[in-house]
Amino acid sequence: MIEMASASGMWRMAGGERDVMASDTYGTGQLIRHAIEVSRVDEILVGLGGSATNDGGAGMAAALGVKFFDENGRVLSPCPRELQHVARVDVSQRMPLPPIQVACDVDNPLCGPKGASAVYGPQKGASAEQVVLLDACLGRLAEISGASECALVPGAGAAGGLGFGFMAYADAKLVSGFSLVAEIADWRNRVAEVDLVITGEGSLDEQSLHGKGPVGMARLCGELGVPCVAVAGRCTDEVELRRVFDDVVDLRSSVATVEESMARAAELIEQRVLGKRGDWRKLVEVARGKKQEKREKC
């Protein structure tokens, strides 16, 4: 099992060092190569998320032997600044790979207004102009690679397009990270036995609605008739989120800045959750009543 963020994640660089135009996923490819050549694994599971990159998986592919050329035949570095000039992709020297599954918790396509660049580029430091350039770069990469269909698959835009890269260059299969963990942990049966689920995320926003873990949990709870509430360091798109969760607690509403909500997270969570006990008890009572009615009808 490989976590792509361990090599290509935001945490690897301080804020001032981040340059999405110069970053790539080569390190993730090196981890895969090591797993195959040194650890001799028979299959690989890669977890996506928390990336600092927007290279469409070209860096990962380059580490496995794929080459990218411009119109003059020059080998390109697999970062967006150079990939915008890609004219040919050669996969003939790519190393043999075992079956690879890629777990991701978002359903974004590669390009467009819901794609990797538009939705996640700004949080990686991309300016408005760079978002446009990055989106065009990924579209060109998909076309030149003969993988335009892969670009449309939900999850292709995960981790700066790494979901696309795994499909296009490694014949990998994308799977829902939430569904995978839920199956392993037997969450359906475990959740069915509780009265209330409390979940959370650092930032609950539009990105969360694209299939991230907390929303997956809320939907599972909805199927089982169990109330699900969310606690977040900050919350946007609250109207939409309240259609998914039975209640949402935004810690930022208690303090002046996001930084303060992060620094005082434990204290604020305790305060706000204790203050919500009455409201959440009512949610539980209503849910119990509905379950009882359902049993009586049966």
Residue runs with pLDDT of under 50 for 5 or more positions:
none
Radius of gyration: 21 Å
Overall structural class, as computed from helix and strand content, comes to: alpha/beta
Number of helices: 15
Q: What share of the residues lie within helices? A: 40-55%
The largest beta-sheet arranges its strands as: 1-2-5-6
Shape estimate: globular
Please report which band the strand proportion falls in: under 5%, 5-15%, 15-25%, 25-35%, 35-45% or over 45%.
5-15%
- Mean pLDDT over the residues: 92
Query: What is the distance, rounded to the nearest whole angstrom, between the alpha carbons of the first and last residues?
Result: 44 Å
Which homologous superfamily in CATH is the superfamily of the largest domain?
Glycerate kinase, domain 2
CATH-assigned fold name of the largest domain: Glycerate kinase, domain 2
CATH-scheme architecture of the largest domain:
Alpha-Beta Complex
Number of strands: 9
The domain tally reads: 2
